[in-house]
Amino acid sequence: MMKAPWSPSKQQSNHFQEEGYFVVRGLLSNDLASEIRGVIKNYLLTPETTGDAEPNQQTDDTPEARAARFRKLGALGIQSPLIWDAVFTGQSILSVASHFLGGNLLLKFNSVFCKPARTGAATPWHQDNGLWRDGEISPLNFWMATDPAIRENGCLQIIPGTHQLE
Hints:
Layout: H1 10-19, H2 30-45, H3 63-69, E1 72-74, H4 76-79, H5 81-88, H6 91-101, E2 111-113
Antiparallel strand pairs: 1-2
């Protein structure tokens, strides 16, 4: 039996119209989210290869140093079969994207942001539309926390209603 296409609830639709975003809880299972988190952590913990360099010439490659150094992992979604299958081609996410953009989807950018609490500089207020300046596409951003996202650890914040400004 084929699952019906996803559509937002009345509450999600209203929230999107008024605030500029909405939340879909449980789109991916907790187990799958944990597996994705494991893929990211394994990537961060895997030592870099430096070719013929002597060990004492390498940069600090401890797990802690790698986690602090790698704040953004570009194209990890394409490199990881689990992330590719679950997120970029997974029916749950595609059904949401297709609802808003139709069936002809194009992945223009993918990245995993690793922002441990109190590590590095704060990210100032900004609009993600800087990634979508080509005018050829209607954008959709997807964000999923794999760790608890709360004010105390610097979670994502959105200024409600700014989607209606110039």
